[in-house]
Design a protein that fits this description.
Oligomer: single chain
CATH architecture of the largest domain: Orthogonal Bundle
Distance between the termini: 87 Å
CATH topology of the largest domain: Chromosomal Replication Initiator Protein Dnaa, Chain: A
CATH class of the largest domain: Mainly Alpha
Length: about 260
């Protein structure tokens, strides 16, 4: 025991401490060595949880940056800016389209593709942006992006924003309603049930959005505009029947559920 105490007082090495412990243990246990000292394991450092990115992985910069800034300024979910159908969501999407076009000098076609809107929507958003910025005490080019977005969020006229839906929303809603995936709708698979859902989603996209036939075809897996035209003609009677039953304020979900009731 004195040896062990001496080791402690002299700050002996770990191996010397273990040797002294074994000697004492051999005496206490009648010549049988005591159990070896177990080194106390150091606690593993707690890892910070990785932040969850709420945006689609295919959305590149600077679109991700602008959408997140708009969502923060309007206190809404980032995915609402991309695919929401409420007027407030459409206002956020309009701000994102205009800020991206003006701030980063990106072509309208690219913005329309990434944000899932029509080129006309981008042009209309830019016109509103010019009016809003001209009245605000900020420079659209040189002010901080957050200041530009905040100025737009405060003064952007909600009444001027059409409650338009996007092809992205139509595909997602029809996929969820009919039990398929968006990837399947965009794929080349031609099973009977999947083709029917694809045609209905194309027809509703033409009916509810401002996108042209080529734009819709491109967003449905790169299909030709003639494919969209064929889908619209094939579903014309169904669209007319459902449209007569639904109010003007009907959402994409209302259209998808009504069509499912009719075709089932």
């Amino acid at each position: 025991m004195a040896t062990l105490v001496a080791c402690v007082r002299t700050y002996a090495s770990a191996e010397e401490m273990r040797s002294a412990y074994r000697q004492i243990g051999a005496r206490l246990y009648g010549g049988v060595a005591a159990p070896a000292l177990q080194a106390t394991p150091e606690p593993e450092p707690e890892l910070e949880p990785e932040p969850i990115d709420p945006l689609p992985p295919g959305l590149p910069q600077p679109y991700r940056y602008v959408v997140m800034a708009v969502a923060a300024a309007l206190d809404m979910a980032p995915m609402s800016v991309l695919g929401g159908v409420a007027p407030e969501d459409c206002r956020g999407r309009s701000i994102a389209a205009a800020v991206t076009a003006h701030r980063f000098d990106l072509p309208p076609d690219s913005i329309a593709e990434q944000l899932g809107v029509g080129r006309g929507f981008v042009a209309e958003s830019l016109r509103t942006f010019e009016i809003v910025i001209s009245r605000a005490a900020v420079s659209a080019k040189w002010s901080d992006l957050g200041a530009v977005v905040a100025a737009c969020a405060m003064a952007w006229p909600l009444a001027d924003v059409r409650p338009a839906v996007t092809v992205r929303v139509v595909k997602q809603v029809f996929a969820d309603t009919f039990g398929v995936t968006v990837r399947e709708i965009e794929s080349v698979r031609r099973t009977k049930g999947l083709v029917a859902v694809r045609h209905m989603a194309m027809a509703v996209s033409k009916h509810l959005t401002s996108n042209s036939l080529p734009e819709i075809g491109h967003r449905f897996g790169g299909r030709d505009h003639t494919t969209v035209l064929h889908a619209c003609r094939k579903c014309a009677a169904l669209v007319e029947q459902v449209g007569a039953e639904l109010p003007d304020t009907a959402t994409v979900m209302d259209w998808a559920r009504a069509m499912r009731r009719v075709v089932s």
